[in-house]
Amino acid sequence: MVQGKKLFCFGYGYTCDYLAHELMRRGGWSVGGTTRDTEKRTFLRQRGVKAHLFDYEHPLGDPHFILEGTTHLLISTPPDDRGDPTFNMHAADIIRIPTLEWVGYLSTTGVYGDRAGGTVDEYSEIRPNSKRGSRRVRAEEEWYSLLQHYNLPLHIFRLAGIYGPGRSALDSVRAGVARRINKPGQVFNRIHVEDIVQVLIASMERPNPGAAYNLADDDPVPSWEVITYACELLGLTPPPLIPYNEADMAPIARSFYNDNKRVANHRIKEELGVMLKYPSYRDGILACLQAEQSGELEQYLPAHEASEG
Protein backbone atom coordinates (compact mmCIF):
# COMPACT_ATOMS: atom_id res chain seq x y z
CA MET A 1 0.00 0.00 0.00
CA VAL A 2 1.08 3.57 -0.67
CA GLN A 3 2.59 5.29 2.34
CA GLY A 4 0.98 8.21 4.14
CA LYS A 5 -2.33 6.58 5.07
CA LYS A 6 -4.69 7.29 7.96
CA LEU A 7 -6.78 4.66 9.73
CA PHE A 8 -9.68 5.75 11.90
CA CYS A 9 -11.54 3.20 14.05
CA PHE A 10 -15.00 3.85 15.42
CA GLY A 11 -14.90 1.61 18.49
CA TYR A 12 -11.17 1.23 19.11
CA GLY A 13 -10.98 -2.14 20.84
CA TYR A 14 -9.15 -5.44 20.73
CA THR A 15 -9.26 -6.06 16.98
CA CYS A 16 -8.59 -2.43 16.07
CA ASP A 17 -5.59 -2.35 18.40
CA TYR A 18 -3.98 -5.34 16.70
CA LEU A 19 -4.69 -3.85 13.27
CA ALA A 20 -3.25 -0.47 14.26
CA HIS A 21 -0.09 -2.06 15.66
CA GLU A 22 0.52 -3.99 12.45
CA LEU A 23 -0.05 -0.97 10.21
CA MET A 24 2.18 1.30 12.29
CA ARG A 25 4.83 -1.41 12.37
CA ARG A 26 4.87 -1.32 8.57
CA GLY A 27 5.34 2.45 8.66
CA GLY A 28 3.60 5.34 6.95
CA TRP A 29 0.34 5.08 8.90
CA SER A 30 -1.31 7.38 11.41
CA VAL A 31 -4.12 6.02 13.57
CA GLY A 32 -7.11 7.55 15.30
CA GLY A 33 -10.19 6.14 16.92
CA THR A 34 -12.97 6.41 19.45
CA THR A 35 -13.62 5.07 22.92
CA ARG A 36 -16.33 5.53 25.54
CA ASP A 37 -13.83 5.72 28.40
CA THR A 38 -11.78 8.79 29.39
CA GLU A 39 -8.95 6.76 30.97
CA LYS A 40 -8.66 4.60 27.88
CA ARG A 41 -8.56 7.73 25.73
CA THR A 42 -5.63 9.03 27.77
CA PHE A 43 -3.84 5.68 27.54
CA LEU A 44 -4.30 5.53 23.76
CA ARG A 45 -3.08 9.08 23.26
CA GLN A 46 0.05 8.29 25.24
CA ARG A 47 0.70 5.51 22.73
CA GLY A 48 0.31 7.76 19.70
CA VAL A 49 -3.32 6.98 18.83
CA LYS A 50 -5.43 10.10 18.28
CA ALA A 51 -8.30 8.96 20.48
CA HIS A 52 -11.63 10.72 21.00
CA LEU A 53 -14.67 10.09 23.17
CA PHE A 54 -17.74 8.86 21.32
CA ASP A 55 -21.11 7.31 22.13
CA TYR A 56 -24.76 8.28 21.74
CA GLU A 57 -24.35 10.99 24.36
CA HIS A 58 -20.99 12.17 23.03
CA PRO A 59 -20.84 12.56 19.23
CA LEU A 60 -17.53 13.71 17.83
CA GLY A 61 -17.15 17.40 18.61
CA ASP A 62 -15.67 18.40 15.26
CA PRO A 63 -16.05 15.41 12.92
CA HIS A 64 -14.78 17.29 9.87
CA PHE A 65 -11.48 18.06 11.63
CA ILE A 66 -11.18 14.69 13.39
CA LEU A 67 -11.88 12.62 10.25
CA GLU A 68 -9.92 14.86 7.89
CA GLY A 69 -7.47 12.88 5.76
CA THR A 70 -8.89 9.48 6.71
CA THR A 71 -8.16 6.96 3.98
CA HIS A 72 -9.27 3.80 5.77
CA LEU A 73 -12.22 3.60 8.16
CA LEU A 74 -13.05 0.63 10.39
CA ILE A 75 -16.38 0.48 12.21
CA SER A 76 -16.51 -1.75 15.28
CA THR A 77 -19.22 -0.10 17.37
CA PRO A 78 -21.84 -2.58 18.63
CA PRO A 79 -25.40 -1.77 17.59
CA ASP A 80 -28.30 -1.67 20.00
CA ASP A 81 -32.06 -1.37 19.47
CA ARG A 82 -31.51 2.12 18.07
CA GLY A 83 -29.09 0.83 15.44
CA ASP A 84 -25.37 1.44 14.94
CA PRO A 85 -24.29 4.58 16.82
CA THR A 86 -21.64 5.40 14.23
CA PHE A 87 -24.21 5.29 11.44
CA ASN A 88 -26.82 7.21 13.38
CA MET A 89 -24.47 9.96 14.57
CA HIS A 90 -21.92 10.30 11.78
CA ALA A 91 -23.03 8.70 8.51
CA ALA A 92 -23.46 12.17 6.97
CA ASP A 93 -19.91 13.09 8.00
CA ILE A 94 -18.42 9.85 6.70
CA ILE A 95 -19.85 10.15 3.19
CA ARG A 96 -18.22 13.60 2.94
CA ILE A 97 -14.66 12.36 3.55
CA PRO A 98 -13.02 12.99 0.15
CA THR A 99 -9.90 10.92 0.87
CA LEU A 100 -11.75 7.72 1.81
CA GLU A 101 -10.45 4.63 -0.04
CA TRP A 102 -11.77 1.75 2.06
CA VAL A 103 -14.40 1.18 4.73
CA GLY A 104 -14.74 -1.99 6.81
CA TYR A 105 -17.66 -2.93 9.03
CA LEU A 106 -17.11 -5.68 11.62
CA SER A 107 -20.25 -7.78 11.76
CA THR A 108 -20.87 -11.33 12.97
CA THR A 109 -21.59 -14.78 11.60
CA GLY A 110 -24.65 -14.60 13.84
CA VAL A 111 -26.50 -13.00 10.91
CA TYR A 112 -26.87 -16.49 9.41
CA GLY A 113 -28.74 -17.88 12.40
CA ASP A 114 -29.00 -21.59 13.16
CA ARG A 115 -28.31 -24.24 10.48
CA ALA A 116 -28.50 -27.37 12.63
CA GLY A 117 -24.81 -28.03 12.05
CA GLY A 118 -24.92 -27.25 8.32
CA THR A 119 -22.50 -25.05 6.42
CA VAL A 120 -22.96 -21.40 5.46
CA ASP A 121 -20.97 -19.18 3.13
CA GLU A 122 -21.31 -15.53 2.10
CA TYR A 123 -24.10 -16.38 -0.34
CA SER A 124 -26.25 -18.15 2.24
CA GLU A 125 -29.56 -16.62 3.25
CA ILE A 126 -29.41 -14.09 6.07
CA ARG A 127 -31.83 -15.28 8.76
CA PRO A 128 -30.79 -14.42 12.33
CA ASN A 129 -32.52 -16.08 15.25
CA SER A 130 -31.28 -13.79 18.04
CA LYS A 131 -31.56 -10.12 18.95
CA ARG A 132 -27.78 -9.77 18.53
CA GLY A 133 -27.94 -11.19 15.02
CA SER A 134 -30.94 -9.07 14.05
CA ARG A 135 -29.20 -5.90 15.21
CA ARG A 136 -26.19 -6.74 13.04
CA VAL A 137 -28.37 -7.42 10.01
CA ARG A 138 -29.97 -4.00 10.42
CA ALA A 139 -26.55 -2.37 10.79
CA GLU A 140 -25.23 -4.12 7.67
CA GLU A 141 -28.25 -2.87 5.73
CA GLU A 142 -27.70 0.68 6.98
CA TRP A 143 -24.09 0.70 5.84
CA TYR A 144 -24.94 -0.96 2.52
CA SER A 145 -27.38 1.88 1.86
CA LEU A 146 -24.43 4.29 1.81
CA LEU A 147 -22.67 2.10 -0.73
CA GLN A 148 -25.76 2.09 -2.92
CA HIS A 149 -26.54 5.80 -2.70
CA TYR A 150 -23.13 7.43 -2.11
CA ASN A 151 -20.60 4.86 -3.40
CA LEU A 152 -19.13 4.37 0.06
CA PRO A 153 -16.29 1.83 -0.45
CA LEU A 154 -17.82 -0.60 2.05
CA HIS A 155 -16.67 -4.12 2.97
CA ILE A 156 -18.48 -6.35 5.47
CA PHE A 157 -16.54 -8.76 7.68
CA ARG A 158 -18.64 -11.38 9.46
CA LEU A 159 -16.57 -12.57 12.38
CA ALA A 160 -16.78 -15.84 14.24
CA GLY A 161 -15.84 -15.83 17.93
CA ILE A 162 -12.73 -13.69 18.38
CA TYR A 163 -9.85 -14.92 20.50
CA GLY A 164 -6.18 -14.11 20.88
CA PRO A 165 -3.52 -13.30 23.47
CA GLY A 166 -5.10 -12.10 26.68
CA ARG A 167 -8.53 -13.20 25.47
CA SER A 168 -8.61 -16.96 25.04
CA ALA A 169 -9.56 -20.20 26.75
CA LEU A 170 -6.28 -19.93 28.68
CA ASP A 171 -7.62 -16.85 30.45
CA SER A 172 -11.02 -18.34 31.32
CA VAL A 173 -9.33 -21.48 32.65
CA ARG A 174 -6.96 -19.48 34.83
CA ALA A 175 -9.82 -17.33 36.10
CA GLY A 176 -11.71 -20.45 37.14
CA VAL A 177 -14.77 -19.60 35.02
CA ALA A 178 -14.25 -22.12 32.21
CA ARG A 179 -16.87 -24.85 31.94
CA ARG A 180 -17.02 -27.82 29.61
CA ILE A 181 -20.61 -28.06 28.43
CA ASN A 182 -21.50 -30.87 26.06
CA LYS A 183 -24.37 -30.47 23.63
CA PRO A 184 -24.01 -33.38 21.18
CA GLY A 185 -23.48 -32.23 17.60
CA GLN A 186 -22.90 -28.60 18.62
CA VAL A 187 -19.89 -26.78 17.17
CA PHE A 188 -18.62 -23.23 17.46
CA ASN A 189 -16.58 -21.24 14.97
CA ARG A 190 -13.70 -19.01 16.01
CA ILE A 191 -10.99 -16.81 14.51
CA HIS A 192 -7.65 -15.62 15.92
CA VAL A 193 -7.26 -11.84 16.07
CA GLU A 194 -4.08 -11.96 13.97
CA ASP A 195 -5.96 -13.71 11.19
CA ILE A 196 -8.65 -11.01 11.34
CA VAL A 197 -5.90 -8.44 10.89
CA GLN A 198 -4.37 -10.15 7.89
CA VAL A 199 -7.80 -10.41 6.23
CA LEU A 200 -8.48 -6.70 6.82
CA ILE A 201 -5.11 -5.71 5.37
CA ALA A 202 -5.57 -8.02 2.38
CA SER A 203 -8.93 -6.35 1.72
CA MET A 204 -7.33 -2.90 1.98
CA GLU A 205 -4.81 -3.98 -0.64
CA ARG A 206 -7.51 -5.49 -2.89
CA PRO A 207 -10.64 -3.37 -2.36
CA ASN A 208 -13.91 -4.83 -3.60
CA PRO A 209 -16.70 -2.53 -2.36
CA GLY A 210 -19.87 -4.40 -1.57
CA ALA A 211 -18.11 -7.65 -0.71
CA ALA A 212 -18.89 -9.61 2.45
CA TYR A 213 -16.36 -12.00 3.94
CA ASN A 214 -16.68 -14.74 6.54
CA LEU A 215 -13.82 -14.82 9.02
CA ALA A 216 -13.51 -18.21 10.70
CA ASP A 217 -10.79 -20.82 10.95
CA ASP A 218 -10.87 -24.28 9.37
CA ASP A 219 -11.76 -26.18 12.53
CA PRO A 220 -15.21 -25.65 14.08
CA VAL A 221 -15.40 -27.77 17.24
CA PRO A 222 -17.35 -27.95 20.51
CA SER A 223 -16.21 -25.34 23.01
CA TRP A 224 -15.40 -28.00 25.60
CA GLU A 225 -12.64 -29.35 23.35
CA VAL A 226 -10.94 -25.96 23.39
CA ILE A 227 -11.15 -25.79 27.18
CA THR A 228 -9.67 -29.29 27.41
CA TYR A 229 -6.71 -28.30 25.25
CA ALA A 230 -6.10 -25.10 27.23
CA CYS A 231 -6.01 -27.16 30.42
CA GLU A 232 -3.51 -29.54 28.84
CA LEU A 233 -1.21 -26.65 27.92
CA LEU A 234 -1.44 -25.24 31.45
CA GLY A 235 -0.95 -28.61 33.12
CA LEU A 236 -4.35 -28.41 34.83
CA THR A 237 -7.13 -30.95 35.26
CA PRO A 238 -10.05 -30.06 32.98
CA PRO A 239 -13.36 -29.19 34.67
CA PRO A 240 -16.02 -31.89 34.52
CA LEU A 241 -18.01 -32.38 31.33
CA ILE A 242 -21.56 -31.14 31.96
CA PRO A 243 -24.49 -32.24 29.78
CA TYR A 244 -26.13 -29.22 28.17
CA ASN A 245 -29.55 -30.04 29.62
CA GLU A 246 -28.10 -30.08 33.14
CA ALA A 247 -26.00 -26.90 32.81
CA ASP A 248 -27.01 -23.86 34.85
CA MET A 249 -26.42 -20.98 32.44
CA ALA A 250 -27.54 -17.38 32.17
CA PRO A 251 -29.95 -16.75 29.28
CA ILE A 252 -27.34 -14.89 27.24
CA ALA A 253 -24.85 -17.77 27.62
CA ARG A 254 -27.49 -20.34 26.70
CA SER A 255 -28.47 -18.30 23.63
CA PHE A 256 -25.10 -19.00 22.02
CA TYR A 257 -26.03 -22.68 21.92
CA ASN A 258 -29.09 -21.87 19.80
CA ASP A 259 -26.85 -21.34 16.75
CA ASN A 260 -25.13 -24.42 15.36
CA LYS A 261 -23.38 -24.04 12.02
CA ARG A 262 -20.09 -24.44 10.21
CA VAL A 263 -18.81 -21.25 8.63
CA ALA A 264 -17.06 -21.63 5.28
CA ASN A 265 -14.07 -19.32 4.78
CA HIS A 266 -13.11 -20.03 1.16
CA ARG A 267 -13.73 -16.48 -0.04
CA ILE A 268 -10.97 -14.92 2.05
CA LYS A 269 -8.60 -17.53 0.66
CA GLU A 270 -9.63 -17.46 -2.98
CA GLU A 271 -10.36 -13.74 -3.42
CA LEU A 272 -7.92 -12.17 -0.94
CA GLY A 273 -5.19 -14.82 -1.05
CA VAL A 274 -5.19 -15.25 2.73
CA MET A 275 -3.43 -18.23 4.27
CA LEU A 276 -4.53 -18.54 7.87
CA LYS A 277 -1.77 -18.36 10.45
CA TYR A 278 -3.94 -20.32 12.88
CA PRO A 279 -6.22 -22.71 10.92
CA SER A 280 -7.09 -24.62 14.10
CA TYR A 281 -7.74 -23.64 17.71
CA ARG A 282 -4.74 -25.78 18.64
CA ASP A 283 -2.41 -23.56 16.61
CA GLY A 284 -4.01 -20.42 17.99
CA ILE A 285 -4.19 -21.32 21.69
CA LEU A 286 -0.57 -22.48 21.66
CA ALA A 287 0.43 -19.17 20.03
CA CYS A 288 -1.47 -17.28 22.74
CA LEU A 289 0.55 -19.05 25.42
CA GLN A 290 3.78 -18.33 23.60
CA ALA A 291 2.84 -14.64 23.24
CA GLU A 292 2.26 -14.45 27.00
CA GLN A 293 5.60 -16.07 27.75
CA SER A 294 7.46 -13.75 25.40
CA GLY A 295 6.06 -10.57 26.98
CA GLU A 296 4.45 -9.60 23.69
CA LEU A 297 1.20 -8.55 25.39
CA GLU A 298 2.81 -5.54 27.06
CA GLN A 299 2.60 -3.52 23.85
CA TYR A 300 -1.16 -3.97 23.48
CA LEU A 301 -4.22 -2.67 25.25
CA PRO A 302 -4.99 -4.71 28.37
CA ALA A 303 -7.65 -7.22 27.37
CA HIS A 304 -10.16 -5.96 29.94
CA GLU A 305 -9.88 -2.45 28.47
CA ALA A 306 -10.00 -3.58 24.85
CA SER A 307 -13.73 -4.03 24.33
CA GLU A 308 -14.89 -2.95 20.89
CA GLY A 309 -15.70 0.64 21.71
Structure description:
The chain has 309 residues and is an alpha/beta fold. The protein has a domain at 5-162 and 191-218 and 265-279 and 295-305: NAD(P)-binding Rossmann-like Domain (Rossmann fold). 36% of the residues lie in helices and 17% in strands. The protein has helices at 14-26, 38-46, 63-67, 85-94, 131-150, 169-174, 193-205, 223-234, 251-255, 266-270, 281-294, and strands spanning 5-10, 29-35, 50-53, 72-75, 102-108, 119-120, 154-159, 161-163, 180-182, 190-192, 212-215, 241-243, 262-263. Strands 3-2-1-4-5-7-11 form a 7-stranded parallel beta sheet, sandwiched between helices. Helix 1 (14-26) crosses helix 7 and helix 8 (223-234) packs parallel to helix 11. The longest helix is centred in the middle third of the chain and has 20 residues, at 131-150. The relative contact order is 0.16. The mean pLDDT is 94.
